[in-house]
Structures are given as structure tokens and as C-alpha cells.
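Re: that chain you flagged

S.,

Sorry for the slow reply, it's been a week of failed gels. I finally had a moment to sit down with the sequence you sent. For the record, here it is as I used it:
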Amino acid sequence: VWGQFTPEGYQINVSDDGGANWQGPQELWSFDDGLRGGYIAQNIILAGQSDNVFVAFCGQYGATDFDAPSISDMTLSSVRRGEPWIVTAELNDESGIDYTDVNWLKVGAEEWDFAEADSGMVDDDDNGTYYYTMPSDSMNGMALADGDSVWFFVFARDGVGNLGFGLEGLIIVGREWQGVTNPVFIPSETTLGVNYPNPFNSETVIPYTLNRSQKVTLQIWDTNGRLVETLYDGRQVAGHHSVSWKATGVPTGLYIYTMKTSAGVTLSGKLTILR
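Prediction finished late last night. Pasting the C-alpha cells below so you have them in one place:
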């Protein structure tokens, strides 16, 4: 767990017993790379799969009469390889933006990378819309593949040293972006929902949730146990998902849909085609 702060004196506290006891930072050090000087507080804690860990950032944020820069309305132009990934964000600040960039990390890499704003449509106080471009073919020197996960967030510093951060967004390469308007809530268990509509004529949607990243196989079977169609077979991140089935050319009748995961979960439901 890590955080960036200015000025000196901030820390990260961590609790692994529901907040009854808190651990202070194991390390606290200063750094200055010429652009984004500040302070890092780091705490490493070992946690099991079902443990709850609480994190608190302690200290007064900002040492001036001005609020930290606010970052909102983050959007992303694409999630495909070979296409520009352009992040757009609204930045507002009372004392003017001194520096801003977009930060990204491919899951599996060890360090974050960043790129300064390409351009901005701003007023005299540096408030307005900023644009940032992330490389879409590689992250941190690692080649991307469809299904890879990339985290990103926007950073801003104002003229008096306050720091602002946009909420993190998660890119699933080639598939989706879960961003500030669609926050990721990790379910407590893996479930298979009831398809809708049901009965249906031509297309239905099957919802499901995953409590952690794992391989998922969703399939349609007839009542004689014959495989009709595989709807999805691959790895997915934790969260809420859905898959649609277009039953083109499939006769009227009762069918079974199943979900199997690499964590050993097998679930099923019934759906009816009515023409």
C-alpha cells in the first residue's frame, strides 16, 4: 500500500482486525524527480484470501488555504491495441494547475509510468479540459494482449503544492473500461443470475458475478445434455458481468445454461425459448 503526499509528515495506517488496532508505516522517505517531488509512505501487510484490510491516510491534506485540484469527468477514447488511448479529464483548481499527467500500470509490471498532458482547453487559471495519450501497444515495456488489465489515474499539482488524483480506471484490453462513472465493486461471492427476459424469442441476457479474477466458461445445453453453444470461455476480473445469447436457429423449448470457474464453482439455470 503506498501513497504520495506533500509536505512531510503524512503516513499510511493499516488494520487487519477491522480497525481495532492500527499499524503505522514501516517506511517513510522523501523523493524528488524534478517534476513531482513529495513524500512516500509505504506499509506492507500479509493478508489471506478472505481477510479484510482497512487503509487510512492520516494527516491534514494540503498546507494552504486552497483545496486540492479536483479531477472529474474522466473518459477514454479506446481500449484496443494499435489505437490511441486518449484520456480526457476536467481539472478545476483555485490557484492554477502547475503540472498534470496520466499514470498507468499494466497488471504484472513493477512500476507506474506516466505521460504529461498533450494539450488542454483551459482558462486563465488553468481550469478546464486536459487530454493525455497512453501508448496502446505496450505498458512499462511489456507488450499488451487482449484481456490484459491496465490501471490508470490522472494526477495534478497546483501552484501552491496541493495534489489531486482522479479515481482509478481499469482497462480490460480489447473489451471494456471500468472508470470513474462505473466504479468496480467486488462481490463477496460468485453467483449466476436469472436470465432476462425469460421466456424469450430471439435474445436473452445472463448476469453473473465473480468474487475474484478467474477463468470462466458459460455454455448452453439442451435437456438431453448436448452442448448447444459456448457463450464465453476465458479469464475475467472480479466484478459484475453479463453475456447475451442470440438463439438464432435454435428450436422452441427448455434449455440449461451453466457457468464453471477455475475456482471450482459450477452453477446452472433454466431458460425457455418461446416463438
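What I noticed first: Confidence is low (pLDDT under 50) at residues 1-9, 27-41, 59-63.

Talk soon,
D.
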